[in-house]
Write a structure and sequence with these properties.
The protein has about 280 residues and is an alpha/beta fold. About 40% of the residues lie in helices and about 15% in strands. About 35% of the residues are buried.
């Protein structure tokens, strides 16, 4: 069923970034749900072995197709963000789980003053038919940790439907151009499914205005998810700890610099000038 919603012409331009890996059978549904008036659709492919790219070109000839530089969802998003030209960027999964028809509600949250509109399956009005008990438990545990460490009030942490102003891209500090590591991992920091949590933490540290938008997650239409609950959960946990440590080091360095500057300035005020010394 085609989505009849249409973004008002007066709204900011919207770029929709869709990471794909063997999603040829799901793209017809995802594209059909996109509202009219989208500025651009960017499909970032992870070197699919099916006809994902051909289907994207057939269904949406105006879509920009980008091949990701490394592997993982995070890298795919970084590659899409790097070429986006719209004023607003939408992160949208290609498996049909997220309802693209909700995009106007996310953009409206930005127009109402938010810097970052974060989808939540647990906010009033949201929901999911895809979450397993293990994923729900893991999400809540990791979310509680982030909320405690960063004094946030997130109700959903590991959800990939998010919308934000493109001008805030520098805050995310995502790398799309560095080649894959030579140690065989093929991934850099933030290249995997930990990307949603990484972004949530960095927009929080940057003190951007974050608003949660209720969202309903459907089950994947075709295929099997590339997410592995336990191993990817551990990666998210490691990321939370490492980002916190990095922030503490940065804050300590800044504090030491500020303290030294204040001490030096105070000393210079107290020191006699050459004329006074005479």
């Amino acid at each position: 069923m085609t989505n009849q919603a249409h973004l008002p012409a007066s709204w900011p331009s919207v770029s929709v970034v869709i990471p794909t890996l063997n999603e040829a059978r799901n793209l017809p549904h995802v594209f059909a749900q996109l509202p009219g008036g989208i500025h651009e659709v960017i499909v970032v492919d992870g070197h699919s072995v099916d006809d994902t790219c051909a289907v994207a070109r057939r269904l949406r000839p105006d879509a920009q197709i980008v091949m990701q530089t490394r592997s993982g969802k995070g890298n795919a998003l970084a590659c899409g963000f790097a070429v986006a030209t719209g004023q607003v960027i939408v992160m949208l999964d290609a498996d049909g789980s997220a309802d693209a028809g909700e995009i106007p509600a996310f953009v409206q949250a930005l127009l109402d003053g938010a810097d970052f509109a974060k989808g939540s399956r647990f906010a009033p009005g949201g929901g999911s038919t895809d979450l397993t008990r293990l994923r729900t438990w893991g999400n809540r545990l990791l979310m509680a940790m982030v909320n405690r460490v960063y004094s946030t009030g997130y109700t959903d942490l590991c959800y990939g439907f998010n919308v934000f102003w493109r001008r805030h891209l520098p805050v995310l500090r995502l790398d799309s151009s560095t080649p894959s590591p030579q140690d065989g991992t093929k991934r850099l920091w933030g290249d995997g499914f930990e990307i949603e949590t990484l972004i949530a933490i960095r927009v929080t540290v940057a003190r951007l205005a974050v608003v949660e938008v209720p969202s309903f997650e459907h089950s994947r239409i075709h295929g099997v998810s590339n997410l592995t609950a336990f191993s990817d959960g551990l990666r998210v946990l490691r990321m939370i700890i490492t980002e916190r440590r990095a922030r503490n080091v940065a804050m300590k360095s800044t504090h030491e610099f500020s303290t030294t500057s204040i001490v030096e300035e105070f000393a210079s005020l107290q020191a006699p000038t050459s004329r006074e010394a005479e």
